[in-house]
Amino acid sequence: MTDAPEKQRLMTLARLLTAATASREVDWQAREPDVYIWESSAGSVSVASRDRDGEPPFELAVYNPAQERVDELGSALLDDDQPAPWNDALATLYRAARRSALRADDIVEALIVALPAASEDGEAEQERSFRRLTRRVAAQGEETE
Amino acid sequence: MRDAEWQLREPELYAWSSNDGSISIASRDRDGDDQYELIVHNAAGEQVDELSSERLAGDRPARWKDALAELHLVARRSALIEALPTTAGHTASAS
Description:
The complex is a heterodimer. By secondary structure, chain A is an alpha+beta fold. Chain A has helices at 5-22, 87-101, 104-114, 125-144, and strands at 29-32, 35-40, 43-49, 58-63, 69-74. Helices cover 44% and strands 20% of the residues of chain A. Chain A has a five-stranded antiparallel sheet, covered by helices on one side. In chain A, β2 (35-40) and β3 (43-49) form a beta hairpin. The N and C termini of chain A lie far apart (77 Å). Chain B contains one helix and five strands; from the N terminus they run βββββα. The N and C termini of chain B lie close together (7 Å). Chain A binds chain B through residues 54, 98-99, 102-104, 107-108, 110-111, 114-117, 119, 125-126, 128-129, 132-133, 135-140, 142-143, and chain B through 1-4, 18-23, 40, 42, 46-49, 74, 77-78, 81, 84-87, 89-94.
């Protein structure tokens, strides 16, 4: 496999899409497990874990507006058994697309909001843990008396 | 004040859940070593994000390495306390 100009263009597409995804300028959708799609008026792009296990190798595919597949780029090893120069770009895009499709930022934010408020009196976590432990042990003692 | 209470899900893996999803923190190789993974799941249990303390390109330590180690420590402490038997009318987090 050669580092042909069309592969360079797809690698550029992957990197630009990763940047746009990270800045939440584009949104991805999950069409099936481990396959994520970004659609625009000019066509669409999918990125997937080939074995649908969330692990490499990854595949990027480009579709025209008629949903015909027009190009693709996959993680690969080159003739000298070296990873292809676009492997990292595909892995990074896959992770970004998955985060976007599964609304990871929204969930992380919701979890942050759901956390109990931090202690206002500055009580250290370790001190609180020891107090909780003491209560547990005391409760055990009362039960055995 | 109610603390976030963690549960031991499997050896060296501790989880905290809310209605929106859950977070787990684990020793990567489940051996208590200092490589940790934080994983975020949505309410359906799908993994949506992760953060690992493995070294970055150029063998640089990740900026979040210490935060993950600290979280693992407090989650482990919380889970071990929660795992203690309770008696009627008493809970570890009761004020």
